[in-house]
Every structure is written in C-alpha cells, then in structure tokens.
C-alpha cells in the first residue's frame, strides 16, 4: 500500500486537476492497518506474475494484500526464485515446503489481441503438490487491478470455503470542513470516486441489492430528504421529501421498496415508499420514535430502532408492518440494526457507560457479543459474505472507517489522509 | 455586528443553562388566551410591549432588543423537555405569529450533540423540534405554519468535543422561512 513519492505526487496532481469537477477520483486513498489476535493463519506464497508491469501495484501484490487483509493468511517470502515459475512442471515444491508455505500462487501476463492482456494464475496445495485452481482472464490493461481482486476471490473461496469480497465496493461520506462527498471505492479503499458533492450534510447511503443505485439522505433542501442515485447514469430521484424529516433509507431485497423514517405525522416512524417513487405507506404506529429500518435478507422482516418502551432498543416486525417484537434487552441504548447476509445475526450500536460500541445479536439465541472497543462507533455494515463488519469509529474527534470480523478476532483500521470518514455501507457481491 | 451580538447572547444563554442545573422557579401557568400580559418566570422572558402593525421600525426578528431575536432553545442531555426558562421565548414567538405577522411560517430545526448513532440522533433532534412545535400550537399558532425538522448531530454550532460544546448543540432553532416578507 506504500506508493512511491512520485506516484503519490502524481495521484495528488490528478486530484488537484479533478478537484473542481463534480465526479472524479477522490484525492485521498484509504490505507489499511490490520491487527489479528489468535487463530491460525494459512501461510501462502503469492509469486509475482511473469510479465507483470502493472502500476502502481503488481497483480501479485494486490492479491497478496487482499488475502493478508482478512487476517486469515500469512504471506510467505517469495524472494530469490528465478526464473518465475509459470507452469506446474516449473514449481520446486521442496523449496516451498522448506519456506513453510502451505499454498502457492504462480502465474503470468501475456499480450493478447486488441491491446488486451491474458492473465493466467494457478493455485497449488504445496503438501499434496497438486493444483487446486487454474484460471485465465483476457482483459484490458486497465482491468488488471480488478482481475487481481477476482483472483484473490477464487483463492479465498478455494482455501476457506467462503465467498471472497475483494471485488465488491464500499461507499462512505467524506467530510472536509463544510464540504461533503459521497464516495464509492473498491473494498480495499482504492479507486475512490466521488459520486456526489455538497456543502450540506450527506447521510446514510444504502446500496440497492444489485449495486446499481444508492439511496441516501440529502440536506440540500435545508432538511433531510431521501434521494436515489443511479451510479452509472448519475441521475437522481427524490423518493421521500415529506413535511418534516425523511431519512434512514433501506432497500427491500426485491428492490421494490425503500423502508424510510419519516416525521410527516409527528414523531419519526417507519414507512415504506416504492423505490421508483410514490406514496409512503406507514408501517409502525408507536407513541415514540421508530427509525433505522433494515430488511432481513429473506424480505420477511424489518428490524428497527424504537424507544416505545422508554429507551431505544432493537425491534422487529413483519415487513409489511404489524406487531413488533423486542430483540435487545441489555442496557438502555441499542440502536441501528443491520442484518447479517445469512439473516441469523443483527449488528447494532450499543451504549455502555457513555461509550458506543458495535455489538452483534444472534437472533435464535438472543446472545449478544460486543465486537469493538471504541468510544463512538456507529453505522455497522456487513460484508456480503458476512465475515467482516465495516463501521465508523471516531478517533480524536475524527470519523474513520474500521472493520472487525464477526468473531472480533481480526480488526482493520482504514485511515484516510483527509477529513472525517462517516457512514460506510458495504455493497453487494458483483453481478457478473 | 448584530449577528455577533446575537451570537454572544446565545452563547451566554447556553453557558447559563449549562451551569444552572435545577434552579427553576415553579412554572407560573400563563393564560394567553385572554391576551393579558402577565409576569413570566425564567431568564429569557420579559413582558413584551406589543406594537401595532406598521409601527415596527426595522425587523423585530433581527432587533437584538426584541425577545424575538432569541430563537434558540437549549435542552438537557437525553431530554426533549422545553425548560421553563424558554417559556418567554416561545410565548413571544407565538404572539408574533398569531398577532403581529399571522402569515409567517417557521421551521424549527432540532439539533443534538455528537454522541450516539447518527440516524437516531436525527430522530431525537426531530423530537426536540416537535416539542417546540407543540408548545407553539398550544399557544394558538396553526400547525400548518410550523415545520419541525432535524439536523441531528450533522450541523453542530460548537465544534469542540466537550460538555460545553455538547450543551450548545442540544438545541432547537426557530427559523422564519419567509424572512423577506417579514420586513415590510
């Protein structure tokens, strides 16, 4: 992740040129620190791919960084191996056994037709001296980084049994002074693009299930309203601008509705609006505040925050409205529920003695685990494979992104050079 | 300059409310339906001399000597109760909206300190705004002329991360939305 000074300068320059433009490469990339406590890490050797000249990072570096970031892998030194092996017959398994590598990745990049390149990689089980995977991709040179993420996805799935999320996107709000930007970046923080800029706050971005649209809260009309933006076209549509507040959009899994929090009839309550626009339909009827709705992945339920019982707690109700059941009981402040992709857990924000942490609730058992140790953590969002939870951590008065594994063992801190980073949302698996 | 003066006033009011815990005198219930002027309790209140329409020189909303220039109500932590010290402020604005400028429209902007979940804070700020709206409607201001909205913890007035800043940011502001027409 350490770009050379020249590259960094080039990146800065590019940022300066695009500064005035509405949509462009964001100036600051995120850098990521990982801490892992306990648990076994699989030692894996990721060889440089023969013929790889990609910048700023080689394909092998991107693959290795992706795997290392999960905390489940340990990168093995690959120095001194010449020439770079590209075929199974060229692999010296005895050497890799000596280096304590359990898995090995080799590959090559060669020119293909139309200016494109062919990327081939192979994954080996060192102990068994057997090939576990072999793939080839013909892509434009500009797609090499994306291809590296796809390779990492294959390796991760082959070795852990879970889907990789290296080809997914994240979105978050960056605040610099009075300037707000909604950015979309690769899951590793690279390729950050500003999709919206405003001098008014932007809040609560939420991905449509297919990743093509973002719903968010805009303050451009001097109060919160809910807007849906098509990412490819850049078009926007206001889907809720009722009297009072309009906020907390959450997509139904079938993309038909957005559950939203509206105050048009008094205190904030949960409603749903058609995602393409239309009339709001009230889903909760409580004397308190009902907000922060989240659909269960099967579309059957909506979890939400309500203080109908005196303190804010997580409840759940049928997705079309109806009797609500309280889900959290410990403490006086449990808010902002988000379902895990398998629908079995809910991540939320818990206040404990003036500190706000991310916790998870196992719905079947009611078991609650506190996952983070910050002072002001907010906005948990599950990776689409359910393995990590991305959230916002306030450190020294500044919002930063952080991630924690579902078992709390692996922690990542994603640091941006400039500004407050707020309200992350992890996008869905790519549809291709 | 006026703006600065207003800001200082507001800051003093905030400091007062932060340091001055539970010393409120019992609330005197004021009957406003009769239109009679009665002494009111609290610091922010004063008996307003109602001026007939047309005799107002300048805008009472920006005249720092007018009680109408006070448009911020501060709240205790985790509370949306309008404290007695703001009774006079709310009454002055309700009088203005029901007597002096019947067609005025107001937006009440609720705010929270930064602690807690952002979206829940938005709803808490809305409840703070709503409590002012209810106070105004009880005093006869038509609900249709009031919009209660919230900025949650998104637009803090004080940017520090300490109790003093938090006290300043737990606030509802009364904003007249057609300020130009008010000047006539």
Please write out the topology:
The complex is a heterodimer of chains A (432) and B (184).
Chain A: H1 5-18, E1 24-25, E2 30-36, E3 42-46, H2 59-69, E4 73-75, H3 93-98, E5 103-111, E6 117-125, E7 130-139, H4 144-160, E8 169-176, E9 179-186, E10 193-198, E11 202-207, E12 213-218, E13 225-230, E14 236-240, E15 246-251, E16 257-262, E17 269-274, E18 281-282, E19 290-295, E20 301-306, E21 313-318, E22 325-326, E23 334-339, E24 345-352, E25 355-362, E26 367-370, E27 377-382, E28 388-395, E29 398-405, E30 410-416, E31 420-426
Parallel strand pairs in A: 3-4, 3-5
Antiparallel strand pairs in A: 1-10, 2-30, 5-6, 6-7, 8-9, 8-31, 9-10, 11-12, 12-13, 13-14, 15-16, 16-17, 17-18, 19-20, 20-21, 21-22, 23-24, 24-25, 25-26, 27-28, 28-29, 29-30
Chain B: H1 2-19, E1 72-74, H2 87-100, E2 106-111, H3 118-138, E3 146-152, H4 163-169, E4 171-176, H5 179-182
Question: Which properties best describe this structure?
Answer:
heterodimer; A: 432 residues; mainly beta; Rossmann fold; Neuraminidase; 2 domains; 5-stranded antiparallel sheet; 4 helices; globular; B: 184 residues; alpha+beta; 60s Ribosomal Protein L30, Chain: A; 4-stranded mixed sheet; 5 helices; 4 strands; disordered N terminus; disordered C terminus
CATH architectural designation of chain B: 2-Layer Sandwich
Structural class of chain B: alpha+beta
Query: What is the CATH topology assignment of the largest domain in chain A?
Result: Neuraminidase
Shape descriptor of chain B reads: globular
How far the N terminus sits from the C terminus of chain A, by CA atoms, comes to 27 Å
CATH superfamily of chain B: OmpA-like domain
Number of structural units classed as domains of chain B: 1
The overall pLDDT average of chain B reads 75
Output the radius of gyration of chain B. 16 Å
Bin the strand percentage of chain B: 5-15%
Based on CA inertia axes, which overall geometry of chain A fits?
A: globular
The greatest inter-chain interface is formed by: A-B, 37 and 24 residues
Question: Termini distance of chain B?
Answer: 22 Å
- Main sheet characteristics of chain A: 5 strands, antiparallel
The strand order across the widest sheet of chain B is 1-4-2-3
Look at the structure and give the CATH class of the largest domain in chain A.
Answer: Mainly Beta
Portion of residues in beta strands of chain A equals 35-45%
CATH superfamily of the largest domain in chain A: TolB, C-terminal domain
Work out the number of β strands of chain A: 31
């Amino acid at each position: 992740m350490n770009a050379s000074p020249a590259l960094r300068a080039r990146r800065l320059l590019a940022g300066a040129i695009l500064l005035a433009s509405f949509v462009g490469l964001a100036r600051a990339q995120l850098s990521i620190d990982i801490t892992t406590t306990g648990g076994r890490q699989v030692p894996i050797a990721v060889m440089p791919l023969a013929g790889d000249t990609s910048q700023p990072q080689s394909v092998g570096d991107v693959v290795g960084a992706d795997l290392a970031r999960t905390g489940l892998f340990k990168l093995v030194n690959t120095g001194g191996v010449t020439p770079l092996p590209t075929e199974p017959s060229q692999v010296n398994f005895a050497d890799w056994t000596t280096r304590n590598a359990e898995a090995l990745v080799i590959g090559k990049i060669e020119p293909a037709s139309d200016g494109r390149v062919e990327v081939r990689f192979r994954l080996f089980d060192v102990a068994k001296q057997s090939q576990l995977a072999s793939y080839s991709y013909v892509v434009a040179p500009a797609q090499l980084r994306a291809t590296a993420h796809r390779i990492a996805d294959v390796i991760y799935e082959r070795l852990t049994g879970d889907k990789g999320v290296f080809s997914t996107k994240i979105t978050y709000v960056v605040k610099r002074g009075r300037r707000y930007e909604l950015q979309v970046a690769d899951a590793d923080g690279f390729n950050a693009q500003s999709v919206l800029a405003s001098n008014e706050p932007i809040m609560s971005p939420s991905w449509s299930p297919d990743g093509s649209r973002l719903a968010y809260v805009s303050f451009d009309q001097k109060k919160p309203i809910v807007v849906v933006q098509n990412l490819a076209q850049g078009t926007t549509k206001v889907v809720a601008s009722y009297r009072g507040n309009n906020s907390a959009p959450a997509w139904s899994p079938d993309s038909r509705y957005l559950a939203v929090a509206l105050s048009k009839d008094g205190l904030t309550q949960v409603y749903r609006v058609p995602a393409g626009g239309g009339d709001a339909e009230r889903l909760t009827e409580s004397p308190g505040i009902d907000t922060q709705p989240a659909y269960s992945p099967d579309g059957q339920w909506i979890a939400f925050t309500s203080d109908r019982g005196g303190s804010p707690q997580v409840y759940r109700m049928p997705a079309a409205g109806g009797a609500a059941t309280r889900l959290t009981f410990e403490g006086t402040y449990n808010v902002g529920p988000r379902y895990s992709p398998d629908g079995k857990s809910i991540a939320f924000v818990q206040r404990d003695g003036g500190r706000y942490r991310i916790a998870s609730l196992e719905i079947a058992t009611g078991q609650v685990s506190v996952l983070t140790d910050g002072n002001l953590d907010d906005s948990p969002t599950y990776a689409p494979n359910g393995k990590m939870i991305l959230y916002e951590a306030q450190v020294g008065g500044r919002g930063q992104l952080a991630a924690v594994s579902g078992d709390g063992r692996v922690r990542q801190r994603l640091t941006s050079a400039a500004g407050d980073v707020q309200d992350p949302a992890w996008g869905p698996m790519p549809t291709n | 300059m006026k703006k600065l003066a207003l800001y200082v006033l507001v800051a003093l009011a905030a400091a007062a409310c932060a340091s001055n815990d539970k010393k409120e005198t019992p609330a005197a219930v004021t009957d406003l339906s009769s239109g009679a002027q009665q002494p009111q309790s609290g610091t922010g209140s004063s008996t307003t001399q109602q001026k007939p329409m047309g005799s107002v020189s300048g805008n009472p909303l920006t005249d720092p000597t007018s009680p109408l220039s006070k448009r911020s109500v501060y709240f205790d932590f985790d509370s949306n109760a309008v404290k007695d010290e703001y009774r006079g402020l709310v009454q002055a604005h309700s009088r203005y909206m029901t007597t002096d400028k019947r067609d005025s429209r107001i937006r009440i902007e609720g705010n929270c300190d930064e602690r807690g979940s952002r979206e829940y804070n938005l709803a808490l700020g809305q409840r703070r705004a709503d409590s002012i709206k209810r106070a105004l409607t009880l005093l006869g201001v038509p609900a249709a002329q009031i919009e209660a909205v919230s900025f949650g913890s998104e637009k803090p007035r004080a940017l520090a991360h300490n109790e003093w800043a938090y006290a300043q940011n737990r606030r509802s502001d009364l904003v007249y939305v057609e300020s130009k027409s008010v000047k006539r």
